[in-house]
Amino acid sequence: MTRPSSLPAPEPARRRVLRAVRQAPHLLAVELGTPTEPGTPLFGSVRSAWLRRLPYLVAFVFAVSLLPTTITLLSHDYGLDGGLSGALATAQVAPLLLAVTRPLQAWWVIFAADIICALALIHADGVADRSWPWPPTAIVGYLALMVALSLRERGRTLIAVWLTTGLAGILSEAVTPATPVTPDGPGRITSTWVLLFVLTGVVLMMGATLRERGDARRKLIEQETISEAERARRTLLEERTRIARELHDVVAHHMSVITVQADSAPYRIGGIPREAEEEFGSIAATARESLAEMRRLLGVLRSEEAERYGGPEKTPQPGIGMLPKLVEGTVRAGVPVELSLPGDRIPLEPAVDLSAYRIVQEALANVVRHAPGAPTRVSVTTTADGSRLTVLVVNSPPPAPSAPAVPLETNGTGHGLIGMRERVRLVDGSLDTGPLPDGGFRVAAQLPLSPPPAPAVPLPPKDSGSI
């Protein structure tokens, strides 16, 4: 089968390898020349001031201890000139202080100083029977630098540093110093490039692993914080949505009554003027339009409710008259509840009646959930001046757990105090909650018996030409 002429021929493997080899130096140069977050100190984002100063302290200790040791080693043991030994030791050690904020730039200086030192030791008198190309002090300083580098730079940069270190060691084999002959026999030079190459890889890998683990933990904490904020926001929105659905039922009932009364007024009341009939018709039309608009706006909420509960809610909204049934279900769940209601029936606004029921429902659900078996007292009373309704739910500390609580048949919304506050705010009331000294909990709500006065609507100016 022949290949279609429109498709390009596959590139030979040899050519791909050669192209990768040619691009490797460029990639190494890019990675080694592009530091990550230059100028930002290590541990600069931690809260503890002591931890923020720790990298500077460690770098200072390494610099102070390695500088005189390196000068002594190069001048006395390897036989380099004193001035040259001091210059090389300073170039190899001093950049460790820079590594706290700019580790990649410090690596360039220290790596170049180590190369120059290795070349200077080729003709040194004391190189026989010693380590080359990297003296012991150079290895210690280089590994300390690798720790700072691995905690800051990205993985590709660390690989480039590691490969460059190995490449320098391989090239050093071509210029290994000649072993002089001593009275005890021929001298021997200990090659240290393999040791440094292996140790560098181990330190870089361990440091990168610790950094990635710390980054993952930090991102997890940030995500948990965001999730907690989103969960609280979603809870608030769900409770407001539930209130909107229930309020729709209450308002829709009243709007329907207004429509029926306005439509039937001309038939129920005889002898009214034609202008009054037209006004009643206008009122009925406006009420129908408002009701239709409300149903359109809340249609999405109804559809979500149908998906969640298997269909729209058909039952009337509950009030304080259904509290005995709610208490009965709570008692079956294993919570002894004492209910106290006013003797006479209190005329309540539908929103207030519904809010009082929901507050008691949520408070009892919280008792079942968090203090199973705790004796609870529920009371609904009016204030002395008869202007506000007081809803009080107080539970004692829960007894020692003997058996798991029975699930409550009439559960609350699951939104706890957030839902209570939203409902109290809806009717312009007040809510007071908090733990009791004996270990119990108290929920007290004050709800107005009459709705807050609506803002006055200014009347249109009277036409001066009318009679």
UniProtKB/TrEMBL annotation:
UniProt keyword Kinase present: yes
Keyword field: ATP-binding, Kinase, Membrane, Nucleotide-binding, Phosphoprotein, Transferase, Transmembrane, Transmembrane helix, Two-component regulatory system
Membrane-traversing stretches: 54-76, 82-100, 107-126, 132-151, 158-178, 190-210
Stretches for region Disordered: 448-467
Biased composition (Pro residues): 449-461
Domain Signal transduction histidine kinase subgroup 3 dimerisation and phosphoacceptor as annotated: residue spans: 239-304
Entries under Pfam families matching the protein: HATPase_c, HisKA_3
Enzyme Commission no: 2.7.13.3
GO molecular function, one term: kinase activity
Gene3D superfamilies: 1.20.5.1930, Histidine kinase-like ATPase, C-terminal domain
All residue ranges annotated as the Histidine kinase/HSP90-like ATPase domain in the record: 355-450
Catalytic activity field: ATP + protein L-histidine = ADP + protein N-phospho-L-histidine
PANTHER family (UniProt xref): NITRATE/NITRITE SENSOR PROTEIN NARX-RELATED, NITRATE_NITRITE SENSOR PROTEIN NARQ
Protein name per UniProt: histidine kinase
Organism: Streptomyces mooreae
